[in-house]
Specification:
The protein has helices at about 45-65, 85-95; strands spanning about 1-5, 20-25, 25-30, 70-80, 100-105, 115-125. The protein has one domain: 2-Layer Sandwich (60s Ribosomal Protein L30, Chain: A). It is built from 2 helices and 6 strands. By secondary structure, the protein is of the alpha+beta class.
C-alpha cells in the first residue's frame, strides 16, 4: 500500500507529483531543488548554497515520514554542470559522514527553474 508524504517544511510540488511516497518500508523522495519552503523562492547562487537547501528539504521530508539520513540507501544527484560536483559533494558529505548511501551523479542539459542541483532520494527502514 502506498502512502503519500507531504510536509509544509519542504517545497510544494511544482507539478503532478508527490514530495514523497512511502511503499512498505521504503520511502521514495522526489527530486528536490533549492526552494525555500517558507518563501517559495529559489535559494542561493552557488552550488554549495543550493545543495544545502536541497539537503534541508530532503531532511524535512525524511523527518515527516519518520526516517532520517541514516536510512537513506540511494541518492541520485543531477547537476547543471560537472564542474559543480566538488561543491555539491562538500555539502552532501556533511549529511552522510558515516556509511553513506549508494549514489549516482550526472550532469544534465537543464534542470527545473534553471537550478544548479536536484537530488532524489530513496530510504529504507
Amino acid at each position: 500500500m502506498k502512502q503519500i508524504i507531504h510536509t509544509e517544511k519542504a517545497p510544494k510540488a511544482i507539478g503532478p507529483y508527490s514530495q514523497a511516497v512511502k511503499a512498505g518500508n521504503t520511502l521514495y523522495i522526489s527530486g528536490q531543488v533549492p526552494i525555500n519552503p517558507e518563501t517559495g523562492k529559489l535559494v542561493g547562487k552557488t552550488i554549495k548554497e543550493q545543495t544545502e537547501q536541497v539537503m534541508q528539504n530532503i531532511g524535512a521530508i525524511l523527518e515527516e515520514a519518520g526516517f532520517s539520513f541514516k536510512d537513506v540507501v540511494k541518492s541520485t544527484c543531477l547537476l547543471s554542470d560537472m564542474s559543480n560536483f566538488g561543491g555539491m559533494n562538500d555539502v552532501y558529505q556533511k549529511y552522510y559522514s558515516e556509511n553513506p548511501p549508494a549514489r549516482a551523479a550526472f550532469a544534465v542539459k537543464e534542470l527545473p527553474l534553471s537550478v544548479l542541483v536536484e537530488i532524489e532520494t530513496i530510504a529504507v527502514k
